């Protein structure tokens, strides 16, 4: 992987460019591919973000279960202030993306604010999401003694690929530049993904960075798998609560608080909330974040030979890392 460039020394126009992956051009920075509108936020976050020991980061490769993890972590961490059954629960009024992305908020903030720390006014404990690979996180976040905790959710690359392909076509369809985005086929997406030329790609390098960090620093980096969350959501929420330092009490266990959180954050519950039927985020409609929510949907879109080829690329790239999908 290329060395991380100096955060203050990035001329976007000089970076390698990929224009075949809608909806935005991608630029390669620090060994990973970034949507152009987001990259300035990565650079600004690396330069200006001031972490607090109580911060919890939710990290992921795009389309790996970020929205779900945001909902679960938010509902778990704030359950004292916002009981799950409350009709006024923030998740009933706001999409889970009310948990801001580190690089997204920096990218969207006016230059005068972006130059400082756009999260400075956010009250602790902060839950902050990110698609930034471990190697490119602000060093102050990963430094020994920083105290910050990171939860990573990883997903089968084939499902992440298909999920992003569908999502990208929806986002691109909303563009008004008239370009024929429907022509972005699964074969196009597949070739780009295999080359690592996908938002956040290469996916396997993204995953293995956090995997290695979770082995080295298990008290600071929790590694979750989307597929295991689907199989045992209550068990994973219990683990998440323990990791975040707010384990369920015996009374909460007896009252089924974990199960209540899982139900509040289930894809069907979230999908059917009014805010998610109608609202929008900066780049997409809220409803577009809730599609199937299953493991293995890739088989409805990719031929077995494609799957075998991608599996081999990933397996080869992960040789020696100790990680397998
Ligand atoms: P599919 O497109 O395969 O259905 P991200 O949140 O990182 O963008 O990931 C999106 C994927 O997570 C989509 O996968 C989406 O349907 C799924 N998802 C969203 N909310 C979910 C939930 N509450 N439970 C399980 N999966 C969810």
From TrEMBL:
User: Keywords of this protein's UniProt record, alphabetized?
Assistant: Transferase
The protein, known as: Sulfotransferase
**SUPFAM superfamilies, sorted:** P-loop containing nucleoside triphosphate hydrolases (SSF52540)
What EC number(s) does the entry state? 2.8.2.-
Query: A GO molecular function for this record?
Result: sulfotransferase activity
Q: The Sulfotransferase domain covers which part of the protein?
A: 53-322
Per the record's keyword annotation, is Secreted included, yes or no? no
**EC primary class:** transferase
- Is Protein transport found in the keyword set? no
Top-rank taxon of the source lineage equals Eukaryota
Provide the family line. Belongs to the sulfotransferase 1 family.
